[in-house]
Amino acid sequence: MTSTTTTPVRARALRGTLRTIGRIAGTIWSNPRARIGVVLLALFIITATFAPWLAPYGASQDGFERSAGGSAAHWLGTTAAGEDVLSQIIWGARVSVFVGFAAGAIATVIAVLIGLSWGYSRGFGGDVVGFIVNLFLVIPGLPLMIVIASYLQNGGIVMIIAVIVVTGWAWGARVLRSQTQTLRSRDFVTAARFAGDSSFRIIFREILPNMTSLITGSFFGAATAAILAEAGLEFLGLGDPTTVSWGTMLFWAQNSNALLTGQWLLLFAPGLCIALLATSLTLINFGVDGISNPRLREGKGR
Amino acid sequence: MTTNTTPARGAEEPILRVENLTVEYRSEGFEPVAAVKNVSFSLRRGEFIGLVGESGSGKSTLGFALTRLAKPPATIVDGKILFHGSDIRTLDDEALRKQRRGGFAMVLQSGMNALNPVRTIRKHFHDIFRAHGHVEAGSFNARASELVRKVELPETVLDRYPGELSGGMRQRVSIALALSLEPELLVFDEPTTALDVLVQHAVMDTIRQLQASEGFTAILISHDLGIVLESTERVLVMHDGVVVEDGPSHQILDDPQAEYTRMLLSHYADPRAEEIHIPGFSTRGRSADAARAERATTSPRSDARAARRADASIVVEGVSKVYAPPRRGEAPVVAVDNVSFTLAPGESLALVGQSGSGKSTIAKLVTGAEKPSSGLVRFGDSNLSALRRRELRELRKNVQMVFQDPYAALNPLHTVEYTLLRPILNFTERRGEAARERMLELLETVGLTPAETFAQKLPHQLSGGQRQRVVIARALASDPQVLVADEPVSMLDVSLRAGVLGLLEDLREQWGVSMLYITHDLLSARLVTDRMMVLNSGRVVESGPTADVLRNPSDEYTIRLLDAVPNPARARETR
C-alpha cells in the first residue's frame, strides 16, 4: 500500500472514530439522569486531579489536634492520628477514581476478548472457556477477594486492582458472549465470511462495533463494582493501611471507634463520597442504554 | 351496540368516515414528518375495501390511526375519524376499551407473534371473554370452539400452546381472537405477508369467506395489489401519504386513473403467459428466451468472461441432507432428498418451492456452508465436502451469495466503501488506489451513480433497492463464476424489483456469471432464469425450461404454486 492512498483512508477512519465518540457523548449527555452523573463524576475527577492544589494540607500530614470537631482550620475536623479529614477526602479521591477506572477498564478488556471469541467460536474450545467462566461465576466473589488479598499481604493499589479484575471479569464476558451469539448469525456476518474476512476481523470489525453500548455499560458497571470492592477491601484492612483512600479512612475511623467518640463525620464523609461516585457511574449507565438502541432514548410521550 | 351479526347491508349512514386526516411523526430534534396527508374517505357497512401502497406510503399509519392504536411519535394533527358519527379521537381510555368489543378491531402482520407463548389458545379466548363479559361464563368453551371452527382450524388447537402451531395457524387464531369481539369494523394489516405462499393463499380465502358470512366491514392493508384486487370491492391506492386513487376494484384493474396505479399494475403478469411484458425488461417470449439463454451461455462479451474456466460448472449428484431429529424419539429431518443437477457456466437455474422445501439447504450445500449427508457436490474438479480452509476461500472467491434481506446483510456501521473494499482486498491483487477504482467501478456496474457519493454512505442512508444493489456489488467484487441469489427481491417493493432483477439479468449476459436463483416467486423466476426445478419436501418434483414448466406444469404441487400467485387479471375472471 502506498502512503498517498493510506493517508486519506486512515484520516477517514480517524474521523469516523471521533464521530462515534462524539455521538456516544452526545447521547449520554442528552439523558437528564446521565447528565447529573457526568457532572458528579467530573467533580470527582477534577478533585482527584487537582488534589495538591485543592487540599489545605498534605494527605498524611499530622500533628494537628487529635480527634477535633469541625473548625475554620479543619472544616471536617481531624482524625485520631491528628490528620485533616478534608485533605484526606480530597487526596483519597485519587485512589478511588484511579482504581475504579483502571480495574473497570482491565476487567472490561478481558471480558470483551473472552466474551467475543467465546461467543463466536463453536465447538470444543468454547466449552472449555465456558467451563472456566462458569467457575469464576459460581465462586463467591467477596471471600475469594479476601483470600487472594490476604495471601498477597500489603500489595498496595496494584494488588487491589488485580484482585478486583480477577473476580470481576466473568459476568461481563458472559453477557457479551450472549450478544455475540445473537450477532454471529446475522446476515452481515455471513456476508463478511463470504467476502473472505478472517474470524479475527469479523469479530473486531463487524461484531464488536455493534456492541458499543453493551461494552460501555459493562465498563461503568465494572468500574462501580471496583470502587465498592476497593473500599470494602481496605475497610477490612486488606489493603495497604498507610495509603490514604476512602477505604482506609473508614478502616481507621472504625479502629478509633469514631462513632463512640461522636466523630460521625469520619465515617460519614468517605462513605458518602464512595456512594456518590458509585451513583454517578450508575446514572451515566442510564444514558448508555440509548447509544445503540434509539428506542431507549428518553423523550416525551414514550 | 345491540347485535351486529346481521348488519343491514348498504345502509345510508357510513359506518366510518374519515375527514382530512393528517398524521405526523414527531420526534424531538427532528422536523415532523407527515405520514398521512389530508386523507378523506368513507366506508359503507359491510364493505370490504383494500388499502394499497408501497413501504412508506402511510398505509399502516392510517390503519393504526383508524383503530386508535397509533402511538407516539405518530400524532394525529388534523382531521376527524367518525365511527358511527362520533369522533374516536375524543374517546377516553375506558370508552375506547368498551369500543374494542363490537366496535373496531385489528389483525396485525405479526399478529401471530402477539400470542403469549406460555398460555394455551383456550386461555387467550377466555381472557378476552372475561375482560369484556359479553359471553356467559358457562359457554366460554362452546364459543371458543365455534370461533376456531370459523377460521377453519380443528378444535384441538384450543389446548395447544402458540409455539406448537405453525405461522398460518397462529395467524388464523389471531383472526379468531379479533372476531371474538364481534367487531363491526376489522382492519387487516398485511395479514398474510409473513406467511408462506400456499398458506398465504389459504388464509386470504378464509378472510374472504368470513367477511362474506359474518358481514363485518373490513379494510385490507397490503403492499400487494394482486391480493387486494382479488379480494376487495373497492381499492384505495396510497402514495407518499396521499390517496392517489379511490375506486371500485374492476375500474382500478381495467382503467386505472393515477400514474402510480398504472405503474404498480404494470409489474404484474401471469408467469404462465406466452409473452411477458414488464417495464425494464425486454419481452419474454418463447423464442426470445431461447436466444437469451444462448447468448448468456455461449458468446462471451467481456474479457472477464472470456478468461473463465470452461469447466466451472456446479455439479450436484444424488445429494441428500438429513438433520438430526429436533427431539429425541422423532424421525430425522430429511431436508434434501436425492437431488441432482448441473449448473453450467452462464446458465441461470431457478429453485422453486415453499419454505421447508429444501431450497435454502441446497444453497448452503452449494456454497460449502453445509456438507451433504450423502452424494457429491462438485465445483469444477473440487469436491465441496473435502475442502480445507484455503480451498474453501478459493471456493468463496468463485461462488458468491446475494442475500434475501438487504436490511440485514449490510453492517449498519460500515460505509459502502468499506463493505465493498473487503472482498476486493481479500480476493484480488488490487491494493490502495487500484482497489478504490475497482470499488467505484462496481458501484457503477450496479447502477449506483455518482459512485463517489454512494461510496461514502452508510446503509441507513440508502433505500432497500439501493442496499440490495450494494449487496450484489459486494458479491461481484471477487469476479465470481456463480451467484447464489436467495430470494433477492422478496423484501423489496414491486417498483424496485424490476430494477434489481434487470441488473442480475444484465450481469449474467455481460459477465457470464451463472446463477442459482432461489425463490417462491414464479414471475421473477420466469424473468431471470432459463431452467427451473420445483422442490417439494426436499425432492425435485419437476424440472425443465422455465417457460415450459410454468406453461405446462405436470405436477400437482407446481399447479398449486401457480394458483397461489396473486394476480389482478385473474380477479377479473372470477368476479
User: Could you name the CATH topology of the largest domain in chain B?
Assistant: Rossmann fold
Strand order of the largest sheet of chain B: 6-7-8-3-9-10
Give the CA-based shape of chain A: elongated
Fold-level CATH name of chain A: MetI-like fold
How large a portion of the residues of chain A is in β-strands, by DSSP E? Answer: under 5%
Q: Outline of chain B, from the CA principal axes?
A: globular
Mean pLDDT of chain A: 83
Provide the gyration radius of chain B in Å: 26 Å
Name the biggest interface.
A-B, 24 and 34 residues
Please characterize this protein's 3D structure:
The complex is a heterodimer of chains A (302) and B (575). Chain A is mainly alpha-helical. Chain A has one domain (31-296): Orthogonal Bundle (MetI-like fold). Chain A has helices spanning 3-29, 32-49, 51-54, 85-120, 124-138, 141-151, 156-184, 187-194, 199-207, 212-235, 246-255, 264-288. In chain A, helix 2 crosses helix 12 (264-288), helix 7 packs antiparallel against helix 10 and helix 8 packs antiparallel against helix 9 (199-207). The relative contact order of chain A is 0.15. Chain B has 575 residues and is α/β, with parallel strands linked by helices. The longest helix of chain B is centred in the middle third of the chain and has 18 residues, at 197-214. At the A-B interface, helix 1 and helix 8 of A face helix 13, helix 14, helix 15 and helix 17 of B.
